[in-house]
Design goal:
The protein is an alpha/beta fold and 234 residues long. The chain has 8 helices and 7 strands. Catalyzes the ATP-dependent conversion of 7-carboxy-7-deazaguanine (CDG) to 7-cyano-7-deazaguanine (preQ(0)).
Length: 234
Amino acid sequence: MHKSALVLFSGGQDSTTCLAWALTRYEHVETVGFDYGQRHEVELQCRMHILEKLRDEFPGWKSKLGEDHLLDLKLLSQISDTAMTAEKAIEVEENGLPNTFVPGRNLLFFTFAATLAYRRGLSVLVGGMCETDYSGYPDCRDNTLKALQVSLSLGMDMPLVIETPLMWLDKKQTWDLAKALGGPNFVALIQEHTHTCYLGDRQHRHDWGYGCNQCPACELRRTGFEAFQRDSVA
């Protein structure tokens, strides 16, 4: 029934893996990114390199990969006071959530993506949200996104589906999935060209990719890759 998808594509490891996942399942796949005044805005440059590499190095996916869209949501940074949108130390707040949580971000992302999908005739929205290895963000939870799927489908009066292929995977399993989808060349692409670090560090190169190696995003990516490597050698 569903032949086309719109992937929420940030240029990070998770969304790049989700893009490959969608390209193996749907006949036509488009991508959408968001400029929301993020501190690690370098990811917006990375996403363009990734799309170019996918077209150049994966001919089986090239024919399916359609138009890319970039939406300006800088208003979000104006109403947020978080470590993702301002130069401030990463820490846990009194409510138990890390201050990297941007309230409403994923809800807005999916709402704007659904609006774009309506115009483009795309019926599946794909996101890299995950409940297994995450920082406790409430807008990454499976129940949140199931409820949002119902709301968007009713509000758009069309059967929209939200797919989250990483929802129950840890970071090691996400590396495993990348290898299963695109082989060693795709894993190498993720290492070299995706961006995860909250601080936007593209100066320090590690086995798992670029980053500060200290922020929560780098820690998750590093430990997942180390487990992936150990399993590959065993």
